[in-house]
Amino acid sequence: MKTQSILFVDDNKMVLTILERWLEEEKFHIHMANTPKEALRIIEQHPIDVVVSDLLMPGMDGLAFLTMMKADYPHVVRIILSGHLHTQSMLSAINQVGIFKFLTKPLELTETLKNILYEALQQSERNLFAYHAEQQFANHLSAFITDMMKITDQPYVLINHNHLVMANHHSMNQMYPVGQSLLHPVHDGIHLAAHDVYIARQELEHYTSDLCTINQLVFKDTILRVIYFH
């Protein structure tokens, strides 16, 4: 398992020096930057899991920097470190960035602070796992849609796990319009009312008949099914 990393960003070099010495025995890598610009260079060169940034710095301020972090590195956990009071509008903006913790200066070098950093590293692991899961699902979905598009002239209906119609071939629009539920009113399965056909839930995964064939994509809690009509 890789060693995780925390990046501290502060224009006060003394703060960074104290933190570096205090955390040198911990089980994570430490990176230090005096400016957001320097921090961005570090992030491009090293995998970073948590960023602890001062809020008010010359040039690009911490809020603008963390906004960039949220957009470009969404799995990285963001922590603000500041010794200044903030207006309600500033606090609202901070909430929009998605801050894990707000630490005030002067920092109290206690076990509580270390626990916060380790909690942030754990959250980063969860974020990264979720990000990879989303990417994997996107790849599966892309392949699924590509297969659908190969049969452009064949009538189809795309339904989700609740059996709601999400898309259809234009020839199916009157029979099975988008938003319609294909859930059978009594039994556990779908009802193709326009064709007077019932398909039980346990048959949906590998269903084929003279009328239609069903292909499905299953990824975690997401199920998409495309019904191809012959």
How large, in whole angstroms, is the Cα Rg? Answer: 26 Å
Order of helices and strands: EHEHEHEHEHEEEEEE
Could you say which overall geometry the principal axes of the C-alpha atoms support? elongated
Total number of beta strands: 11
Helix content range: 25-40%
Mean pLDDT: 86
Spatial gap, N to C terminus: 51 Å
Number of helices: 5
Strand order of the largest sheet: 2-1-3-4-5
Biggest pleated sheet: 5 strands, parallel
The low-confidence parts are none
Assembly state of the chains shown? single chain
Structural class: alpha/beta
Beta-strand percent range: 15-25%
Task: Detail the topology: elements first, then pairings.
Blueprint: E1 5-9, H1 13-22, E2 29-33, H2 36-45, E3 50-54, H3 62-72, E4 77-82, H4 88-97, E5 101-104, H5 111-149, E6 156-159, E7 165-168, E8 189-192, E9 197-200, E10 212-219, E11 222-229
Parallel strand pairs: 1-2, 1-3, 3-4, 4-5
Antiparallel strand pairs: 6-7, 6-11, 8-9, 10-11
Brief rundown of the structure:
The chain is an alpha/beta fold. It has helices at 13-22, 36-45, 62-72, 88-97, 111-149, and strands at 5-9, 29-33, 50-54, 77-82, 101-104, 156-159, 165-168, 189-192, 197-200, 212-219, 222-229. It has a 5-stranded parallel sheet with strand order 2-1-3-4-5. Strands 7-6-11-10 form a 4-stranded antiparallel sheet, with helices on one face.
